[in-house]
User: Fold this.
Amino acid sequence: MADDRSFPLSIEINPSSRSSDHDCFLVPEENTCPLSPAVDNENEIPMSEKQEDQKLCAVCGKNNARFCTNCRQISYCGKEHQTQHWKAHKADCFPVKAVDKSSLSLCDSAKLQGRGASHVLVATRDIKQAEIFFQESTILSAPGPWDSDAIEVAKGRPICVSCCEIIRGYSDFDDDEDEESTVKCSKCFWPVCNFFCESSKRHSEYECKVFSANNVSSMVLNQMPDYECILVLRALGLRENDPERWMKLLNLAAPMDVCMDFETSLFYINNGVKFIRERCGLKQYSDSLIRQVASICYVNAFCNEDHPGENGYIYKIATYIGDVSSKVAHSCVANSEWAVIPSDEDHIRFRALVPIKAGEVITTVYNYKQVCHESTLCRQPFLSDHYFFSCSCERCLDPSELNTFLCAVKCPSEKCDGYLLPLEPKKSNTVWTCNSSTCEMVETSFWVEEITNSIISKLEPFPYKDPMRGLAKQMTETKKLIIGLKKLVDRYSGSHVHPNHYLLLGAEWKIMQNCYYYIMNVKHWSPDVIGLMISIGKKHLEIFDKLSPGVSRRRGYILYFLQSGLLESIRHGTSSLTKSHKKKVVDPEKHESLKKAYYDMMKMRDESVKIFSFKGGIKNSMEEELLNFSAPDQPFLSCLKFLERILDQSIDA
Ligand SMILES: C[S@@+](CC[C@H](N)C(=O)[O-])C[C@H]1O[C@@H](n2cnc3c(N)ncnc32)[C@H](O)[C@@H]1O
Assistant:
């Protein structure tokens, strides 16, 4: 048994940056909101047919009503009817409004360069940290995108066309292979999870009929261009089935000419045209209409929600399109985070990561997976390929990425301790200069690329494993992966790249995840595993509090991993304590440190659970799975209570 002192029993954590309280509420506290004229002014989005209708009072139908200024979604003839209707309306009344970019301050509009950002959402009042301030049902959702991560995670398994989850039991990859779980829709034979997914409106209303009538099979499972076309097909289906949503979709911004200039979007659009007109035989949709709809889908897509990190577990491979949500601008240091609450219509919601002041532009990270954890030089091409803009947020403009040194490479000069940073961080061919004031070293981007490419090639043999489902059978492999990755990190950290280099952080994130799964599955873990997990967790908390400040889900995951490490170390400490307590007087110093660890652990657990509540209660959500998976068992909870009692007594005495 290892020496108890080897356990890191105490962790100081900073409260989430710019934190306030964590109350979540969906509606303003006041009884009603001010009214404003329902006239279309130049600072507002052009009114769709729906909004035109809303010039009628929602209570009496009288014309020339005025908008509720908080949300501008509904109108009333006057205060009396607004007050009367408040109970019904308050759940939909949100403190954001769309404004024309030209009405922003110079500083705000400078951050939003590019043609697509004609409108943005701004806060109409102060929004509290952790407040879920906006929610709407999505116009559309569908499987995809089929990017390299999706390919790696799906491992040849199909995705349910309705709920977009990977269907397990399909390939050798799954432990629980079971042909019975291989379900296909009984009408069109596309993959679905079960009868409920088969009969969901989303699948059965339109595409299932088109596929059955035209014998469109998913010939090669996971032939993703086909999957990706479902979004465009569903969008076109709205024209007949849901004219209101169809109008909302057509009103979304999309620079079609730009889309046609980029290789990835052109591929997507051309595939859509071919699939819909040739495979599905839907000649009623013209090439140009399909192109228009496909480019709207492409540029307004919210893809793959957050999941724990580099090649981590993806819960759904799904794309969502919202109406008001699609006005939210992107920032790599966003003030809000989005999540989708699965339901028949899938609701997309936004929560404030930090307190947001009235008038501030609402920003979010469009694609967590691709954007959050990589350096500016990786994010820029992704954002320009997928959303056709060059991000100018404070993180993108700062060579050190807010002092995290995410892309810093060790200066090759022998006597120098500094790191090379990109002179122009948004340019791929930038010159790199040393950050030491006494060193004049300059290197080219090719030289830096060689170093990063050599690290990437060393990381390749550590592919994504699905440890959460693999259980004990995979634990030997998990341990090997932890050891192998740790060796790599040690080899490159500080000698070739900065210890915070994004490639090393990605490797460490995998280590932390795998340590977590390891201790959850293996009874006799080595204390080193806990030590490793805790040291990585502390380091990442510091870095990600700068990159995803506030109550971000990344912070939630890190805290969760940290508390589970502490929990295990306390469990270990408690067992030796209870034994010794029977024999002799308890060592007060040890009690003190165990007690501190206990309270630290509870604090972290509490905060991570609060953060996870953003998606909380959602069946099959990643967060729910994590929480259930490692919920302390009853005997352990009694053990904690016991610990609390004896510690209190001994310390009080
Ligand atoms: C989801 S749409 C947002 C729609 C747009 N804001 C509008 O006017 O309705 C994405 C597009 O907004 C623009 N955009 C979003 N965030 C931006 C940013 N930080 N800087 C520049 N353009 C941005 C890009 O053109 C991108 O293609």
Remarks:
- Residues 212 and 524 are 54 Å apart (CA to CA).
- The chain has a mean pLDDT of 79.
